[in-house]
């Protein structure tokens, strides 16, 4: 009896996304190593934690494919992105990585919709919501770097920025949870 509940096309697309999440994780580690080496210990810490989040995302795809009777495939990954040129460029790259990942998730949502695979469509909604948070977070951090002076930030503001980002939560609040009392 065939107990597989996912098409081969979606199985492959979800498995590819699992590998993309893994690559995201390696990319955040590489940005973290760059920041650590530059002396930004707080920012490095933030990026290392974020790398772990991306690994968690990969595991969610892995388990979902297995639960639906498919088999994910761990593929060879390309090298992560090149090192940032400076802090401003680092957070521009973070924002760009998140936007690309959102586009990749949207393509999966479209595929699930096309196949009327509502279980997969439902599974992917967690990632749609997650990407709203991740893009908001990346934009917030980029704003902080700009406020600190961007590429011309003084040594003092860089020290404060490093401290602040090091303690920054990994999630950004969602607009749907805002209220008049707590916007
Ligand atoms: Fe940064 O996000 Fe995964 O999905």
Q: How would you describe what is shown here?
A:
The structure is a single chain. The radius of gyration is 18 Å and the shape is globular. By secondary structure, it is mainly alpha-helical. The protein has helices at 8-38, 41-67, 87-114, 118-147, 155-166. The chain is built from five helices and no strands. Helices cover 70% and strands 0% of the residues. The protein has a single domain (8-172), classed as Ferritin, core subunit, four-helix bundle (Ferritin), CATH 1.20.1260.10. The longest helix is centred in the first third of the chain and has 31 residues, at 8-38. The site of hydroxy diiron-OXO moiety has 9 residues, from helix 1, helix 2, helix 3 and helix 4.
Topology readout:
Layout: H1 8-38, H2 41-67, H3 87-114, H4 118-147, H5 155-166
Bound molecules: hydroxy diiron-OXO moiety.
Summarize the structure.
With 183 residues, this protein is mainly alpha-helical. The chain contains five helices and no strands.
Give me some keywords for this one.
70% helix; 183 residues; mainly alpha; binds hydroxy diiron-OXO moiety; Ferritin
The average pLDDT is 96
Label the structural class: mainly alpha
Radius of gyration: 18 Å
Distance between the termini: 53 Å
Number of strands: 0
CATH architecture: Up-down Bundle
CATH class: Mainly Alpha
Strand composition percent: under 5%
CATH topology heading: Ferritin
Look at the structure and name the CATH superfamily: Ferritin, core subunit, four-helix bundle
Q: What does the overall shape look like?
A: globular
User: Can you count the helices?
Assistant: 5
> Strand count, sense and closure of the main sheet?
none
Would you identify the regions where 5 or more consecutive residues have pLDDT less than 50?
A: none
Task: Tell me which ligands are bound.
Answer: hydroxy diiron-OXO moiety
Helix content: 55-70%
Helix/strand order, N-terminal first:
HHHHH
């Amino acid at each position: 009896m065939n107990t597989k509940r996912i098409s081969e096309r979606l199985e492959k697309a979800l498995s590819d996304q699992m590998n993309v999440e893994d690559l995201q994780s390696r990319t955040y580690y590489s940005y973290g190593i760059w920041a650590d080496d530059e002396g930004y210990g707080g920012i490095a810490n933030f990026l290392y934690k974020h790398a772990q989040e991306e690994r968690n995302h990969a595991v969610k795809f892995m388990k979902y494919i297995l639960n639906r009777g498919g088999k994910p495939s761990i593929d060879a990954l390309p090298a992560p992105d090149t090192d940032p040129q400076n802090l401003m460029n680092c957070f521009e790259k973070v924002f760009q990585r998140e936007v690309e990942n959102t586009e990749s998730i949207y393509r999966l949502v479209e595929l699930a919709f096309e196949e009327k695979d509502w279980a997969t469509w439902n599974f992917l909604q967690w990632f749609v919501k997650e990407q709203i948070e991740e893009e908001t977070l990346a934009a917030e951090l980029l704003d902080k770097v700009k406020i600190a002076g961007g590429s011309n930030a003084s040594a003092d503001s860089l020290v404060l920025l490093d401290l602040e980002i090091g303690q920054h939560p990994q999630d950004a609040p969602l607009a749907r949870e805002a209220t008049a009392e707590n916007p």
